[in-house]
Amino acid sequence: MNSRHLTIGSILALSALGAIPASAQVDWHGFVETGYGARTAESARFDDTKEYTLNETRVQFRASAYGDQGEIFVRMDVLGDQVADDGVKLDLREGFLRFTTLGDHLDVKAGRQALTWGTGDLIFINDLFPKDWVSFFIGREDQYLKAPVDAVRLGLFGLPFDLDVALVPEFTPDRLPTGERLSFYMPEGLAGPPVLPEDQIENGEVAVRLSRYVGNMTIALYGYHGFYKTPVAVDGVGMPFHPRLRVYGASARGASLGGVFWLEGGWYDSRDAPDPDAFEAHPGKVPMGFVPNSTGRYLAGFERQLADDFNATVQYYGEWMQNHDDYAANLPAGAYEQDEFRSLFTLRLEKWLHYQTIRLSFFGFWSPTDEDTHLRGLVSYKVSDEIEVAIGANVFEGNNVETQFGQFDENDNVFTRLRYSF
Amino acid sequence: MLRRKSGLGIATMMVAGVLLGALASGEVRAEAPAAEELMKQAHMNLYYAGDDGRAVVNMTLTDKRGKTRLRSFVMLRLDIEDGGEQKYFTYFTEPSDVRRTGFMVWKDPNEDDSRWIYIPALDLVKRISANDKGSSFVGSDFSYEDVSGRHWNDDTHILLREEEVDGQPYYVIESTPKKKDSFAKKITWIHKDRMLPEKEEYYDKKDRLERVFRAEEIQEIDGFQTVTLRSMTNIRKEHSTSVEFTNIEYNIGIEDGLFTERYLKAPPKKMIEN
Predict the structure, then answer these.
(1) ipTM of the predicted structure?
(2) Which of B67, B123, B128 is the closest to A260 by Cβ?
(3) Does the CB of A151 have a partner CB in chain B at under 8 Å?
(4) What is the per-residue pLDDT across B27-60, written as a single tens digit (0 to 9) for each?
């Protein structure tokens, strides 16, 4: 934590002194969990000694103290990860202070936190808060998909709409496979690991949402200023990096036809992408490296109950690439060419049995344009309020190693988790 | 109060019910209030007492081996219109893995409810499908509909008889769903003075008894006859749920603005303290 963060922290801590009385009661909860997962697909990268995709024990502690005006909350994991083989580590998942001020009009939540907005089910357009894709692919519980982020979140209420602003002083990328336990596709000729934007306040992230409940729907407008969350670009010397990004979007979510529907769209303004007109004006100039073109992204989803304790969700997601012709013309020979229009379908089935002690869950991604799929299955059983056991599997299939799920083709895995909550 | 009855008491009541029903049919029915009006009053007393209400709720689920599970939550209710729209907010404190989860319902008797859940570890507000009135509420024997109340308009009602059970006077009403539903028939015992539904039997389409609801304890709180302990037993599955309401308050000035995504995510202390 640098001095800038400390200053923000001290100001907030001071303003919170009034919010949380010293006498506030602290309550403690958490769980102990052990998880194992193993690769079931043949992989050229991993030999027998690396067959575990998941082999860890964690203890999570949650503590909260409530005051009249606010709350302090901490969620901390103590993790012994045998795959990473780096001893016992502390992983602060959340540690924030939350209070209400400005005559009840402003909510402030400052510190490490999980941030989520948008309407998609495991599809994110306007949610540019960091994800942990490694956890997602190896069978950790759903809460680990959201990587923690150090941020100040402001919620302003009382206007004709609600205004949420998330300020992230230090750019926080998604957590991606590193080759430690999952193999992934890396284009040839990369000169090194991804380079992050310099840690300067100008390189922080700002995300904004305006929302309002209208009729039977929540409608929202979004803005994001920052960088691509994954290192999708390569510079002139072959170093992967996170190019600058702005996103403008909107969503609507409401009830219809006995279920819930959602629509969301966003324009990904890839600010470092070369301007094709500029190249035409200077025919000798060749773009150095590679930066993705701007894209339009759109999503439609619907969820409804099929029977008691049985729900289904379907989604369609699409992406349109701007200047696809220029992109195709500038690809190196033999490189994989993305379609101008990319589409992805998802299906979720959730069934609860035996007084909701048994959960059967299926989630499938399928892209007809990328010709790849990712299937996720989970069966969990709550033996008691304290003890839960889960088994599951992740399956990846694809015709090309360059696609979102195709690159993980060799990472099919099965996993099991046992948890004791307290 | 049906609570005071032992197993024998209930059997006695059932026998008495049959006998009294046989004896009393005819002339009493002619003078009795319309069955639908009785159901409406009982529904209003059970689900619409005061303009708003708040309670700390402890739910105990018992399976056929006697193993129990516990659900604890704080529940707030605001009536937008008597007998009509309502808003509910539920904040879970037990078990540990659902602690801090919030659940909000805007109930509209003429349409599907609007429901939202907040999952704190993901900071996720999710609007959830609400045509599942028969789905179990948090794994209990109560369905969503049992918790927020089935509208009297959804069934046709017949006053079967009036009877005394352990010296207490009851109307006994048979209700049949107008559309195909999770039950085929329901028999309700409404106490004549308290005007509360104090026992309900749910039958399936083969006329087998499936579930039994009982108001086990009733207290007068802030002038309202309040069921402070209720139970639902699933006869075939030998599973039961008992629900205890404590710290009950009425007419405390709960504001409409509390039932929003903002407070679902970050409920103020006064809303959730138990």
Answers:
(1) 0.89
(2) B128
(3) no
(4) 444 455 699 999 999 999 999 999 999 999 999 9
